[in-house]
């Protein structure tokens, strides 16, 4: 019944597991993931679903701690580049940006949040989707190639400490993202 | 109807099944309209057979076109050619054309009406994911399809299904005409008759569709077996299958930003997970069944399990 009606309330974005990554730092370190200190929030294009999006994000970006860019897909990125040691601060800023978008009633415009890591196998990105409240790894292995084996082993290693997205078909990469 | 060999061992399986079913239904529907519009049944049957024949005769080109594959020279793809050369020598069969489809979806297929007119195609995605032994295992499987003349078998099987649907429709239609033709409103009742005829033929078509899938699954197991015997590396094929049809093949490579827009317009992805229809309709047997068979063959060969 609610499928065709436009007024169906969207599922509320859930930031709890995004916050929880700070507590998972020892596990991340144990599997060889070192934060690069970079993280980013990706927002969907401002269309008629989110008429006030641009104005609200302008205000958030004006706080000055974010690089404000728009990619070829028309998605807007708020990128935070901090000190690798200050991982918690970077996460806190990303959570804050997410929260301000949600508070403005624009939670549906949040696509994902990325955190960059370095590892022995090369750069690794952890992607957080607020709509699903889950994380998944993306390990680039060349131009639009992923190291699936490494990604699956990260899933197994991080599963206890982080809410990992169980549906593998949702593990879509974000090529040429500002992070890592 | 079965258009050559395009094994959908990936997330696209549900969508491809759905597409093939719709294409077949469209075919049956067009035939129904031709018959209902008063054209001689023999003419319609002739057109049907002609379309089937064209599909069979040009199966290599149609499949290559559908998969955006292009033939490659030994200089362009030395590894692929080397493996195909070696396997064809072992199997004592003519070397098929070798093609590459530029897509990240891990897949490979072979098609062609006879071993002399065959083409083997691998996607760039499968070549990136598999090592040399695994690729050999996959190509052994595909060349077995060629040697078994599976394109001919599946075309005939597909045609029998469509023919069954056509005969049902023809019988139904002529009985409607014969039985009620003296009624006054018969001419105005033309459209409902067409609808009923189409409905019945769709049901017949659907049943034959499922049966054709079952035959296809059986032939996949058969190709696994002879491919494994040909290469002598059943475990390499098992390892390849795990990579292209296991967890790894479900991890997408298309960008989240484009995937979001994509999913808004297509409903099949939701169909792909959860619903067991896909196993009923799928052209390939479950992975566990294929792996079990390969393990069995490996044991028969006395091969050490340490290979993978």
Notes on the structure:
- The complex is a heterodimer of chains A (180) and B (308).
- Chain A has five helices and six strands, in the order ααβαββαβββα.
- Chain A has helices at 16-19, 25-30, 53-61, 87-103, 148-158, and strands at residues 34-43, 67-70, 76-81, 110-118, 124-129, 134-138.
- In chain A, strands 2-3-1-4-5-6 form a six-stranded antiparallel beta sheet.
- The radius of gyration of chain A is 16 Å and the shape is globular.
- Chain B is mainly alpha-helical.
- Chain B contains 14 helices and four strands.
- Chain B is 68% helix and 6% strand.
- In chain B, helix 6 (132-147) crosses helix 9 (234-245) and helix 7 runs antiparallel to helix 8 (190-231).
- Chain B has one domain.
- Residues 1-12, 179-187 and 261-279 of chain B have low confidence and may be disordered.
- A four-stranded mixed beta sheet of chain B has the order 1-2-4-3, with helices on both faces.
- Chains A and B meet through helix 5 of A and helix 10 and helix 11 of B.
> Which ranges of chain A are low-confidence, i.e. pLDDT below 50, for 5 or more consecutive residues?
1-5
Strand order of the largest sheet of chain A: 2-3-1-4-5-6
> If you average the pLDDT of chain A, what whole number results?
88
Q: Unreliable runs of chain B, pLDDT <50, ≥5 residues?
A: 1-12, 179-187, 261-279
């Amino acid at each position: 019944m609610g499928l065709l009606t436009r007024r169906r309330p969207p599922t509320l974005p859930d930031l709890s597991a995004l916050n929880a990554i700070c507590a998972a730092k020892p596990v991340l370190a144990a599997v060889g993931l070192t934060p690069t200190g970079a993280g980013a929030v990706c927002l969907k294009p401002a269309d008629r679903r989110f008429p006030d999006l641009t104005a609200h994000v302008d205000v958030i970006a004006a706080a000055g701690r974010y690089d404000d860019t728009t990619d070829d897909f028309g998605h807007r990125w708020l990128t935070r580049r901090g000190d690798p040691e200050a991982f918690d601060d970077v996460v806190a800023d990303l959570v804050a940006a997410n929260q301000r978008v949600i508070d403005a009633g624009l939670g549906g415009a949040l696509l994902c949040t990325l955190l960059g890591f370095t590892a022995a196998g090369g750069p690794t990105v952890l992607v957080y989707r607020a709509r699903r409240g889950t994380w998944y790894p993306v390990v680039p292995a060349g131009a639009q190639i992923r190291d699936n084996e490494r990604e699956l082993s990260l899933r197994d290693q991080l599963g206890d400490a982080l809410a990992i997205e169980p549906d593998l078909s949702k593990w879509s990469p974000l090529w040429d993202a500002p992070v890592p | 109807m079965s258009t050559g060999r395009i094994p959908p061992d990936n997330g696209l399986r549900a969508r491809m099944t759905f597409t093939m079913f719709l294409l077949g239904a469209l075919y049956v529907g067009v035939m129904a309209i031709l018959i209902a519009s008063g054209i001689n049944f023999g003419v319609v049957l002739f057109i049907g057979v002609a379309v089937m024949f064209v599909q069979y005769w040009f199966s290599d080109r149609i499949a290559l076109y559908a998969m955006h594959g292009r033939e490659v020279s030994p200089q362009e793809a030395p590894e692929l050619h080397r493996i195909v050369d070696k396997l064809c020598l072992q199997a004592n069969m003519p070397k098929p054309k070798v093609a590459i489809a530029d897509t990240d979806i891990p897949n490979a297929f072979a098609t062609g009406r006879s071993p002399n007119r065959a083409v083997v195609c691998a996607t760039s995605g499968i070549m990136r994911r598999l090592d040399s032994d695994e690729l050999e295992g996959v190509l052994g499987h595909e060349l077995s399809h060629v040697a078994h003349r599976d394109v001919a078998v599946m075309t005939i099987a597909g045609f029998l299904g469509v023919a069954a649907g056509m005969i049902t429709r023809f019988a139904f239609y002529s009985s409607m005409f014969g039985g009620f033709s003296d009624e006054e409103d018969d001419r105005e009742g033309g459209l409902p008759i067409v609808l009923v005829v189409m409905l019945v033929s769709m049901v017949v078509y659907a049943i034959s569709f499922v049966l054709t899938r079952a035959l296809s699954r059986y032939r996949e197991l058969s190709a696994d077996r002879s491919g494994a015997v040909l290469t002598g590396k059943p475990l390499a094929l098992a390892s390849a299958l795990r990579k292209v049809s296991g967890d790894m093949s479900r991890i997408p490579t298309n960008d989240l930003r484009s995937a979001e827009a994509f999913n808004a317009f297509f409903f099949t992805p939701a169909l792909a997970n959860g619903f067991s229809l896909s196993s009923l309709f799928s052209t390939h047997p479950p992975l566990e069944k294929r792996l079990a068979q390969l393990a069995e063959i490996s044991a028969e060969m006395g091969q050490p399990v340490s290979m993978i």
